[in-house]
Amino acid sequence: MTTSRFYFRQLLSGRDFAKDDPMAAQMANFVYLIGDRETRDAVIVDPAYGVRDILDILDQDGMQLSGVLASHYHPDHVGGSMMGHTIEGVRELLEIKGTKIHVQAEEADLVKKVTEVSDGDLEIHQPGDHILVGDVRVDLLHTPGHTPGSQCFLVEGTLVAGDTLFLEGCGRTDLPGSDATAMYHSLHNTLAKVPDDTVLFPGHRYSFHSSATMGMTREMNYVFKPESEEQWLMMFGGQ
Ligand SMILES: [Fe+2]
Question: How many domains does the chain have?
Answer without folding.
Answer: 1
